[in-house]
């Protein structure tokens, strides 16, 4: 009995990777076929009628079990891309290395993938010296496809035709307990694909899941593995974190594990200044609230906010040394973006927007003559004005400046002119406090 007890406590833990299939029937799960998009349902029926296995997989199943509405529906099948393409009209093959199929319907695209497996035998031929997967393009079985997914909550397969939920790794249980658990050994799986470190943060924040205790030490220790990851993939993941609807929690968790150092290293310097920290928190909260209200969010705007305290501090410092206002501002922008470039460059499609928003800020302080009228006509006025409001809400400029611009925008042309007259008589009040 004592041996059995010791074994239970200290013995080898059953790996979550050696999954045993649990098939949950209608009375054992909360999914209903009606919740699946008609397009995905049609694809699955067609494949099944032709003798193939086909399931809804990944995020959609997880989100439906959590009673969230899925972003999109992915389908996994044992049919090859060629077989899928022949069976489903309008479908097209995307990608070369591992082909996936896109099926466009009215307002959605269903992504269909063939089950992936592990190449046979020599594991080392598929990993580099860090243990990173270099090949992941071999077709496999349902079970293998399930085992190569990252977290148990992401490895569920739903068959809407027979209303069955297939679960190899107790994902349904982990979802019910709101637990993020890695399939297999976390260190090994993080080494295979270090982006999973960032995915762990995103899913934990976005779904409100607790991180399984086995993830904690690797999250602290393995951040350096992110260094060789292609910048485009890291930046995509950064955007997903920022647009997850829980950006604030994501950044807090990144900092908690030191992972921000590999994507947004400047956050360290900002944290020591309460005004800066408040500005960033405000921007993240506003973003999360907009997304919760199903409003759109501009990534360029949010990135402009994340770097503004650094730009603003440097701008003020350069002016204090006698540099004129605009050269000081543009110089500060370049210095801050250059520093970020050493870790993770911001792609041009975003840093252009950031510079435009920053570059407009001093123009909001000029409230006489023709300048405010010209600023209203600027195509970036709205973004610049929203940014001004963010600054005024966190004490970077006087709230009165935001109110003035609100009044000016809403007024007819006579009233606008009278606002200008008042402005020229009034002494300028500007707080020089940093954000
Ligand atoms: P979201 O709702 O945020 O899109 P998702 O779970 O659908 O979440 P995706 O990145 O779209 O996430 O990936 C779809 C599925 O593919 C995941 O649920 C997971 O099973 C698998 N997957 C994606 N990326 C990885 C990865 N890096 N390692 C292992 N499995 C992955
Ligand atoms: Mg997805």
Helices and strands in order, then pairings?
Blueprint: H1 2-10, E1 22-24, H2 38-49, E2 54-57, H3 59-65, E3 74-77, H4 81-87, E4 92-94, E5 100-104, E6 109-114, E7 116-117, E8 138-139, H5 142-147, E9 156-159, E10 164-167, H6 171-176, E11 179-180, H7 186-192, H8 195-207, E12 210-211, H9 213-221, H10 231-242, H11 247-256, H12 267-271, H13 274-292, H14 299-320, H15 325-341, H16 348-360, H17 371-377, H18 381-393, H19 399-410, H20 413-425
Parallel strand pairs: 3-6, 11-12
Antiparallel strand pairs: 1-10, 2-3, 2-9, 4-5, 5-6, 7-8, 9-10
Bound molecules: adenosine-5'-triphosphate and magnesium ion (MG).
Give a short synopsis of this structure:
The protein has 435 residues and is an alpha+beta fold.
Q: What tags apply to this protein structure?
A:
435 residues, alpha+beta, Beta Polymerase, domain 2, Hydrophobic Seed Protein, cca-adding enzyme, domain 2, 3 domains, 8-stranded mixed β-sheet, two-stranded antiparallel sheet, 20 helices, 12 strands, 9% strand, binds adenosine-5'-triphosphate, binds magnesium ion
Outline the structure in words.
There is one protein chain. The chain is 50% helix and 9% strand. The chain is an alpha+beta fold and 435 residues long. The protein has three domains: 1-182, Beta Polymerase, domain 2; 185-263, Orthogonal Bundle (Hydrophobic Seed Protein); 281-419, cca-adding enzyme, domain 2, CATH 1.10.3090. It has an eight-stranded mixed sheet. A two-stranded antiparallel ribbon has the order 7-8. A hairpin with a 4-residue loop joins strand 5 and strand 6. Helix 14 (299-320) crosses helix 15, helix 15 (325-341) runs antiparallel to helix 16 (348-360) and helix 16 crosses helix 18. The protein is elongated and about 75 Å long. The model is unreliable at 6-15, 121-125 and 424-432 (pLDDT under 50). Bound molecules: adenosine-5'-triphosphate and magnesium ion. Adenosine-5'-triphosphate is lined by residues 58-59, 71, 74, 149-150, 154-155, 193, 195-196.
């Amino acid at each position: 009995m004592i041996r059995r007890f010791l074994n239970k406590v200290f013995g080898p833990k059953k790996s979550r990777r050696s999954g045993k299939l649990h098939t949950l029937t209608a009375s054992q799960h909360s999914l209903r076929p009606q919740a699946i998009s008609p397009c995905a349902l049609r694809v699955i029926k067609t494949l099944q009628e032709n003798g193939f296995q086909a399931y809804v997989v990944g995020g959609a199943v997880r989100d439906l079990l959590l009673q969230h509405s899925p972003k999109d529906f992915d389908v996994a099948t044992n049919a090859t891309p060629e077989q899928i393409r022949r069976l489903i009209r309008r479908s097209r093959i995307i990608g070369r290395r591992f082909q996936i199929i896109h099926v466009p319907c009215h307002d959605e695209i269903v992504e269909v993938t063939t089950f992936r497996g592990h190449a046979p035998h020599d594991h080392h031929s598929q990993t580099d010296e860090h243990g990173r997967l270099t090949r992941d393009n071999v077709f496999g079985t349902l079970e293998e496809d399930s085992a190569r997914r990252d977290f148990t909550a992401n490895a569920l397969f739903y068959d809407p035709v027979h209303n069955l939920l297939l679960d190899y790794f107790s994902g349904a249980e982990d979802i019910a307990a709101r637990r993020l658990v890695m399939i297999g050994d976390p260190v090994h799986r993080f080494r295979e694909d270090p982006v999973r470190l960032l995915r762990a943060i995103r899913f934990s924040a976005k779904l409100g899941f607790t991180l399984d205790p086995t993830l904690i030490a690797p999250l602290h220790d393995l951040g350096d593995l992110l260094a060789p990851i292609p910048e485009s993939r890291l930046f995509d993941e950064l955007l997903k974190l920022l647009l997850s609807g829980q950006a604030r929690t994501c950044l807090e968790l990144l900092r908690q594990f030191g992972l921000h150092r590999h994507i947004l290293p400047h956050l360290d310097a900002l944290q020591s200044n309460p005004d800066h920290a408040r500005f960033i928190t405000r921007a993240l909260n506003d973003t999360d609230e907009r997304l919760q209200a199903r409003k759109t969010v501009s990534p360029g705007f949010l990135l402009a906010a994340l770097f503004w305290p650094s730009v603003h501090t440097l701008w003020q410092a350069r002016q204090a040394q006698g540099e004129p206002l605009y050269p000081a501002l543009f110089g500060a922008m370049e210095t801050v973006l250059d520093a970020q470039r050493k870790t993770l460059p911001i792609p041009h499609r975003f840093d252009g927007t950031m510079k435009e928003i920053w570059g407009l800020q001093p123009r909001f302080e000029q409230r006489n003559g023709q300048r405010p009228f010209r600023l209203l006509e600027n195509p970036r006025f709205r973004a610049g004005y929203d940014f001004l409001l963010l600054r005024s809400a966190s004490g970077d400029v006087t709230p009165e400046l935001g109110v003035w611009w609100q009044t000016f925008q809403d007024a007819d042309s006579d009233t606008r002119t009278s606002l200008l007259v008042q402005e020229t008589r009034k002494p300028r009040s500007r707080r020089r406090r940093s954000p």
